[in-house]
Write a structure and sequence with these properties.
This protein is α+β, with helices and mostly antiparallel strands and 154 residues long. Helices cover 21% and strands 36% of the residues. It has 4 helices and 10 strands, in the order βαβββββαβαββαβ.
Length: 154
């Protein structure tokens, strides 16, 4: 199992607009701010059930990586994290070297658990959050498509 290309830092925040303003003070400009809703992934399924998590999000990109700010707006793993840990780094995202399906198979065969997995209504994988807090100190997001653009699940 090799995590592969580093893609993104995900940060939980209590207020996405305030966080964007703070990042802009340090030169991080050009944010795309929008509400994430299940409609962005047609027929979104989370762990095999109809997707329901929502959040206010902001994305910043340069040629090397992106920063994702997440303000939870309903009960979800994001809200749980905010309550338990407060604002801060939630996950790092990667595109696995051997591909999404092979990585997930190997990960589960080693006895690890995913926090949640998201796929389209036709079963196409989009991304998964892996519970790597004990091993790595953060959750790990694995991508099948493109981070920050759920319409590009491949």
């Amino acid at each position: 199992m090799e995590l592969g290309k580093f893609l993104q830092i995900g940060i939980i925040t209590e207020d996405v607009n305030k966080s964007v303003a703070e990042f802009e003070k340090f030169g991080f400009t050009g944010w795309v701010v929008q509400a994430f809703e299940p409609r962005f992934i047609p027929g979104m399924m989370v762990n095999g059930e109809k997707g329901t998590f929502t959040f206010n999000g902001a994305m910043w990109k340069n040629e090397h990586m992106e920063i994702e700010l997440i303000e939870p707006t309903n009960e979800s793993v994001f809200m749980d994290y905010l309550r338990e840990h407060g604002p801060g780094v939630h996950h790092l995202a990667f595109r696995p070297v051997e591909g999404y399906e092979k990585f997930m198979e190997d990960y589960k065969n080693q006895g690890y658990q995913s926090l949640f997995e998201v796929e389209t209504g036709d079963g196409t994988p989009c991304f998964a959050y892996l519970d790597t807090i004990k091993q790595l100190g953060f959750y790990t997001e694995i991508h099948h498509g493109e981070p920050g653009d759920p319409t590009k699940c491949k």
